[in-house]
Amino acid sequence: MLQADGITYEIETPDGPLKLLDNVSFNVPRGHFMAIVGPSGCGKTTLLKAIAGMIAETDGRFFWNGHDLAEEDFEPSEIGFVPQFSIAYDQLSVDENVESAARLRCRFDSVDDLDESIDNALEVTGMEGIADRDVKILSGGQKRRLALAMELVSNPRLLICDEVTSGLDPRSEHDIVDLLHEISRSEGRIVISVTHSLSHLDRYDSILVMHQGCVAYHGSPKTMLHYFGVSSLEEIYPKLQDREGPSWCRSWGKHRDSYYSRLEQEREKKILSGELPDPDAVRSLPEPEKAPEEPGPEKGDAVRSESGKAASAEGRGGSPEAAAEAIPEVPGFFTQFFCLLGRRWRIFFRDRSQLVLQLVMVLLFPVLVAMFTDKGTGQIVGLSATQDVQTIQKDMEAQQLNMKTGSAVSGIIMFEVILLGLMGSNNAAREVAGERAIMEKEKYAGMRPSAYLGSKLAYLSVLVLVQSVWMFAFVDFFWDRGGGLTHLLFLILADAAMTFVCLGISSLARSADQASLLSIYLVGFQLPLSGAVLALPEQVEGFIRPFISAYWAWSGSISALKSDVYNAVKNVLDTDLTPALVCYIVLGVHVACGIAASYAGIRRSRWEL
Ligand SMILES: Nc1ncnc2c1ncn2[C@@H]1O[C@H](COP(=O)(O)OP(=O)(O)OP(=O)(O)O)[C@@H](O)[C@H]1O
Ligand SMILES: [Mg+2]
């Protein structure tokens, strides 16, 4: 049973506080299929988010099987949420998307159990015939079915859907409503569906009509026309506009009991006719399994996440309604980590444009650097101490040659570092921001932010290693620059620092475009602010330098050169060089800050997306 008791959600606006939900109350029994309808902007999605705990109600309480949800949240697998946006990866097949949903959400004793759960979800949603089809070629209706299948793998007790039928043709809409109806009929599941469409309302057990954040009606579809005093459903929305939301709310408060008793009578009839399962029979089922021993997943900063999740399973064990509910356990860190990592690599190899871009960068950038290496291969000549005219003349020529070689060496090293920075930013700029909505959804369903971050770090580290080792090896083939492994380490760190800082940006950004833009600016400013071309004014140098990873990788690499080359480079620079050890430390700090920012951004809930 889901109960809302006086739910109010208020936000601050420049014109003062605004109630998006105003004293919303309703009861929904087990095995119930409810529609939420109302004009655009009346608060339907806001109500769903409040039920799901994605926003914190300002006032009022939700109760789930008698337990206050403010004190003990839903278990991740107890609730399924089907948002309007697509939550599947286009590059994967239907089967692969459902499989990853299952492996991230539920712990299975065997592969057979996993397969059974996937097959069952595909069968219920009628997707088994197109299980191997790629998501990108699915129709709108098939995508909605897939979203439902991905929720059903964890067998949620409460399924909430936001406009899953919008944009579909009448036939597909009818099929999806039928499917939701069927889903609500199994295992006492509650299905709540927000819809704009007033067709098929007779398929629902009850309709909740909202207006300006208030409940204007909640009862049987059969009594709705009578309540509003209209002769057709189409007249209801115009009728709502006759009065303000609170006025409808007051009227509903006066009539609610009689409509609820009518609803109860209908429910009893459905139980007698066998359309709904008998709640007494459900109650006599055995006790659920005990709560998982290991701590549950971190659920980001979702508003109800901290409220006694550990206590919840135990607390519900004693409830008669919960007795029938063996809530699936969330899988462990490593199961989620390997599932996410495997999926990331699969997407990498399927995404042709990304793959080609990576290959072009990895193969072409070292060639670009190698083109300039002959300029850095000049002999460094020692200068004479004698002062005769001929020697002075020779010394001047040698000095010019040394300067040319010195600035070429400095330039080539900076070129390597900047190109690796560019690859780093391309690696990570969209990594989290580009799939934020999917990630939020998966976090909500029980995915650990740490497992997600871990999979990103593992995936990106491989890219960083391939890019920087190949850059080093290829350029090294043409140019014995000296510095050896130290230089390689600085190249790895330069790429890693930019990759993980951009991952941090991607995790904190509001959109993928914003993350890309910020990351490109970050790379673009590396060269001018590194001091390798022009020394920075002293007043800004101390302030800016710590943030410029290219400077530290460049400076560290130069410090490790053979002493005569080092001196030749130093002679042409206005900018101070820093000892290699300090450069290691600063780049290490960049990497650590990038990872910390990524974790903070991944944990944070961003449902407004
Ligand atoms: N974060 C927010 N800040 C300000 N206003 C908001 C915010 N979120 C929602 N609103 C406003 O609250 C109202 C209800 O929004 P909601 O998305 O719940 O409507 P809805 O009934 O789902 O509409 P639709 O049918 O168009 O999807 C709208 O007027 C919307 O502009
Ligand atoms: Mg909406």
Low-pLDDT windows of residues: 283-293, 306-324
Class per helix and strand makeup = alpha/beta
- Spatial shape: elongated
Largest sheet geometry: 6 strands, mixed
CATH topology of the largest domain: Rossmann fold
Bin the helical content: 40-55%
Would you state the CATH class of the largest domain? Alpha Beta
E-strand count:
10
Physical arrangement of strands within the biggest beta sheet: 6-7-8-3-9-10
Structure description:
The protein is of the alpha/beta class. α3 (111-124) crosses α4 (140-152) and α16 runs antiparallel to α17 (512-530). 54% of the residues lie in helices and 11% in strands. β9 (206-211) and β10 (214-219) form a beta hairpin. The chain has 21 helices and ten strands. The protein folds into two domains: 2-86 and 156-165 and 176-324, P-loop containing nucleotide triphosphate hydrolases (Rossmann fold, 3-Layer(aba) Sandwich); 334-372 and 406-603, no CATH class. The strands form two sheets. Strands 6-7-8-3-9-10 form a six-stranded mixed sheet, with helices on both faces. The protein has a four-stranded antiparallel sheet with strand order 2-1-4-5. 45% of the residues are buried. The longest helix has 40 residues, at 389-428. The two termini are 30 Å apart. The structure holds adenosine-5'-triphosphate and magnesium ion.
